[in-house]
Amino acid sequence: MQIHDRPLAQRIEWLLTLSRDHAECFGSPSAWLARERYLAAHPTRIVAMKCMDGRIHLPHATRTPLGIIRPFRNLGGIFHLGWPYLGEMLAESVSEAARAGHGVLMLITYHFSRGERSRGCAGFDCDSQAALAHAYQIRAQAEQLFGADHRHVYPLVCGFETDSDALIIHGDDGRVLDIGSLDANQAAGLTQAVSALCPDMPAATLRDLLPLLEGNLAHVEALRGVSRALDIEHREWVICIGRGFDFLHVPNTALIVGPYSPNLSEPIGTAASIIDANMRAGRIPDDGFMLLASTPYQDIGVDRARAELKSRFLSDFASQVIGREHPALAERMVRHTAVVHWPTRRLDLLDT
Prior knowledge:
Layout: H1 8-26, H2 29-41, E1 45-51, H3 58-62, E2 69-74, H4 84-99, E3 104-112, H5 128-146, E4 153-161, E5 166-170, E6 176-178, H6 190-197, H7 203-223, E7 238-242, E8 254-257, H8 265-280, E9 289-297, H9 302-325, H10 327-330, E10 333-341, E11 346-349
Parallel strand pairs: 1-2, 1-3, 3-4, 7-8, 7-9, 9-10
Antiparallel strand pairs: 4-5, 5-6, 10-11
Organism: Halomonas salipaludis
Protein name: Carboxysome Shell Carbonic Anhydrase catalytic domain-containing protein
Domain Carboxysome Shell Carbonic Anhydrase catalytic: 90-173
């Protein structure tokens, strides 16, 4: 029996176990040393604007240690850098990097499937051109915030082809570098290819982008000829609101609503509609769904207390939206509220 077909209590326990396993892996001595060694050699800070779709697991697809790429996840990968909270978080990330003397590589991603249009991004009705256009809008906003000269923050538009896990790098002149079209013998030419595509990319940024592309090429090569379940059918049964869901890179399981938009009601209502449709179509059992609210914190004391308050607010807010827009569905909702100790990625459930 697949996890999506099991009773809700078993599914929830499976998800919480997934979180514990992720924290254990992240906090292991080997993982910690891997991050330290990686950052010593490649200090450019990397942030990724990405969809909540579990297939877009950039550390896995680039063979990068966990914790190097900082994800910002939202339904459809839809963002506006003018949103106050999102803009403040990005600005703080950039300022922190600048104080340490490092630049920032900003990966602005969209995703699609070459094999079947319907496996594309539901947030854009599987229209890859619309998703790409939105990525360029985010890039233009990043240039307004951090400078069009790209000296300190380099906003790079990247496609992610979910059938092969291949990255597609977009240049300024419309040309692309499709990792999925290369073979292992062409890894040595990546530096020249990216330099030609992005001639204004600072040398340090290029140096620290290359391991991601080399890792992606090795990953794509390893998958060639391997039979994969492409997870066509939407079977989500969890709505996540907040941040700290790095452990959730399982396809078609969770709908993640980041706390970035000034109108959270809309994406929460959309997520609830998807869950309701999944139940009505028999893609998941109709015994209920999980609402998980989470907020990361760094330090004990006020920082943790604020995280707890924020998680409870988000949980209450989402519950009210779902109750108002989908009252029958709300009766089958199981709420869990949590905080995440960010240095260890440990998820702690709170009394609701």
